[in-house]
Write a structure and sequence with these properties.
Two copies of one chain form a homodimer. Among the domains of chain A are: 17-51 and 224-296 and 409-471, FAD/NAD(P)-binding domain (3-Layer(bba) Sandwich), CATH 3.50.50.60; 121-208, Guanine Nucleotide Dissociation Inhibitor, domain 1, CATH 1.10.405.10. Chain A has 15 helices and 20 strands. Chain A has helices at residues 24-35, 76-84, 121-135, 149-152, 157-164, 168-182, 191-201, 204-208, 225-234, 274-278, 288-295, 353-360, 364-379, 412-420, 443-463, and strands at 17-20, 40-43, 55-57, 63-65, 89-91, 97-101, 107-110, 217-219, 238-239, 244-250, 253-258, 261-265, 267-270, 281-283, 302-309, 319-325, 333-336, 345-352, 388-393, 428-430. In chain A, a hairpin with a 5-residue loop joins strand 6 (97-101) and strand 7 (107-110). In chain A, helix 1 packs parallel to helix 9 (225-234), helix 3 packs across helix 7 (191-201) and helix 11 (288-295) packs across helix 14 (412-420). Chain A is globular, with a radius of gyration of 23 Å. The relative contact order of chain A is 0.20. Mean pLDDT of chain A is 94; it is low at 1-8 and 467-475.
């Protein structure tokens, strides 16, 4: 057996609750417990907090959100923390016209797309409405109990579109919607997961739109700021650079073994993405439903590219920056990601799923050229001379492995979710946006998942003997 | 960082090639290298060899194969080892009539099923022939290059049957075929994986049938025997109880860290099932395609139940024992698994996929009663009094996690196989039946995969500097 040597100065010997992961899920769980006066320790593999948010100040002094970046008006859990910490937000820039570039290279400018705007739009709107209707039947607490769940989890979204959507242009629109929201291809997910995710956000529009929806509001200091503030509040209860390798559980406690030492506790909340969760060894092994659920939850693929200019010159031309590219081999969407005061001009380009695979096959020079060529085509010659260029492929984050989230494979919901999705395994509880019923896959879902797991733990601790964590026996 | 304390007496400090896993893939790789005079060390997590084969002698002295058990006439790699070690085989019992029990409980007896035999049979045969035709186009070395691969990998087998098969009885037959061969539901795999697997075996019949096919021949001492013989030949080059936790690779060597110590080598062959492979930490991390391939390759679910009697009494009644149960909530197939001399009567019952989930929800008494009731219904009152009963749920094997094999999720082949399926990562090579082009998922595929990986390593070693493994620098 491996012998882990730990410096006693590094981690405390005991705590009440260990939280694995200092993303929004883990930090929110720890904050809830800390607020309730419960002793908690967050162990984080990386040298930073924030998980799938990463807000860095570039050389020009501009905050760049390389990961999650928005908050919407129905994301109540996220907004409650934004308010608590008094974090500064501002509205996503929505002035000017959007661009839609079609497969033949033609461009249309529009403000708000109606059903008669552009190829396939009428059919797209019809399908979106149908999806909303179908998603209303989803059981958010137990998606496998949704009426028709077996049939819905047996067909890919691709097959559903093939079967029910005749207009190839509408299919292109729907495919890009899936790629941009789920960061997978329509072939990778079932109709049940698709409908669950729509229901979890409230509607298809909630996922896709800005005004009144998920992309409405941005953060002056980046979306990572709330995480940083929680971390500051928790102080040395957050330990960085401590990847968890093994969790041993018994009837009266848990032992969490990290590269920075090990710690005993009453309970543990694991708040990491599913594939990262698979790399933690459990003793005894996880029950089959949980192991299968993890094995059937691969991460999506997304690359964010930020191209910066001295100023948002496209706004002068009456353009919002928001551009949708149908049939482009690399880019899917472009948004204006400039700071609120427009002291710089920043465009963010999104690469999704199959396009990420094509993207990775190019060398950096080719990638830069492709992106700049596209931006010149959309916004004119001024786009040819950016002052900065930055890429972020989330698959390269070794303790995260992809973004935005994991998407269960077809069949996973009905086969393994009953006991595998988020049911505690003894003293081990599960958080992470993938375990959320509301805004699953989003920062908001991460926070609500952490709060839910914290509530489970508080309830369990309240029921347990008053001996608390002193009652743990040696394994 | 973890400090691994190793006893120098336990593992050698260096070898040329480390093989991870002593299943058929790993042992075959090691045997090839050993035959070629190359220094090799096999490290196995469990206290036994054989992987997904497990042949135990029961209290009555009867060999019971709890895992893989058959060899077919086209499984040339397996047969070559059977011959080399002079292992005793015998034909699967095919005397008497088979039983087919339909959804309404009615039973039909037949010898060889023709297209007019039983509900849905004509349509089933038509679809099987169509599947064979389609599978002829599969590129076995690169399934993603199969004509129409994107479309084929975007639709589940369930959806294909819904779309192309009208007869509900034929659909039931096809579903049980998928369940019994892939140990998943038709919703879990794409048409591309389905066709690849059929092509890999040669035909749909090859997968389903006994005479001239995959289930033709059994082993007097069980299917694990060849593995045991290889292990004896390799002697102390096989080390048990040494789970590999981490593999560090550099330009001039690898370091393999196990619970029994660590060892340096020129190259390593990882020959474990994909989910087990995910539990090994790689330094540096695996490239994204390989990580994604593993994340999208969950194991199937199968339980084998052996029910033993004093003698194979069903043979007296002109029955082969082979029974197919349509619509049964637990059992799929029953076979005569008696020893060749009929000194005992053994029936093996197979539980697959969704039925395994139902199975696990019952307690053992309920399970036994269900099985015995079914056997009584099939074979008469004599079945009510077995002398022994044994269950094997392969999901409970912590270093294996399921059986027979892993099935890539829809999309996995076309998205990640180009670099993720079996392409070596630096000095790390991949074996295991999931990496085989011929008889993928079978013992034969495991063996050919080991031989292919060994050939890669031999070729790499032949090209490298003659300094050999002495050239490895400290990390």
């Amino acid at each position: 057996m491996q012998t882990v040597t730990s410096s006693p100065a590094t981690l405390p010997e005991r705590t009440s609750v260990v939280v694995v992961g200092a993303g929004y899920a883990g930090l929110s769980a720890a904050l809830e417990l800390h607020d309730a006066g419960i002793d908690v320790l967050v162990v984080e593999a990386q040298e930073r907090v924030g998980g799938r948010t990463l807000s860095l100040v570039d050389e020009g002094g501009v905050v760049i959100d390389h990961g999650g970046q928005w908050v919407g008006p129905t994301q109540r859990d996220f907004l409650s923390l934004v308010e608590r910490f008094g974090v500064e937000t501002f509205p996503t820039y929505l002035g000017g016209q959007n661009i839609e570039r079609w497969t033949d290279g033609s461009k249309r400018h529009f403000k708000i797309a109606g059903p008669d705007d552009g190829p396939g739009m009428r059919e797209y709107v019809r399908v979106m409405e149908e999806i909303d209707r179908m998603s209303a039947a989803v059981d958010l607490e137990n998606p496998a109990a949704t009426p028709g769940a077996v049939e819905l989890d047996s067909e890919t979204v691709h097959s559903y579109f093939e079967r029910t959507v005749q207009d190839p242009d509408a299919r292109l629109r729907l495919a890009l919607a899936v790629q941009s929201v789920w960061t997978v291809e329509p072939r990778d997910i079932s109709m049940l997961h698709f409908l669950f995710y729509v229901a979890s956000a409230g509607s298809f529009d909630q996922l896709m739109e800005a005004e009144g929806c998920a992309q409405e509001t941005r953060f002056a200091n980046g979306a990572q700021e709330v995480a940083k503030r929680i971390s500051v509040l928790l102080g040395d209860r957050v330990r960085l650079g401590a990847p968890v390798r093994r969790i041993e559980r018994s009837g009266d406690g848990v032992r969490v073994l990290t590269d920075a030492g090990d710690v005993r506790a009453d309970r543990v909340i694991v708040a990491v993405p599913p594939p990262a969760g698979q790399q933690i060894l459990h003793e005894p092994p996880l029950p089959t439903p949980r192991a299968r659920w993890l094995a059937k939850s691969p991460m999506g693929d997304v690359v964010k590219i930020h191209v910066s200019y001295d100023r948002p010159f496209w706004r002068d031309r009456g353009l919002s920056g928001e551009s949708t590219l149908y049939g482009d081999p690399l880019l899917g969407f472009v948004f204006d990601n400039s700071p609120h005061d427009a002291s710089a001009g920043v465009l963010v380009c999104f690469v999704y799923a199959d396009r990420v695979r094509a993207w990775r096959a190019l060398d950096e020079r080719e990638r830069v050229r492709e992106v700049i060529d596209t931006l010149v085509d959309l916004f004119g010659q001024e786009a040819a001379a950016p002052v900065r260029y930055a890429e972020k492929d989330w698959a390269e984050e070794r303790f995260i492995g992809g973004a935005y989230a994991a998407s269960p494979a077809p069949g996973a919901w009905i086969e393994h979710s009953a006991a595998g999705w988020r049911t505690p395994v003894g003293r081990v509880h599960w958080a992470g946006t993938e375990t959320a019923s509301v805004w699953n896959g989003y920062i908001d879902g991460a926070i609500s998942s952490g709060r839910r797991a914290a509530a489970e733990v508080r309830s369990a601790l309240a029921e347990s003997e008053p001996t608390g964590y002193d009652g743990i026996s040696e394994p």
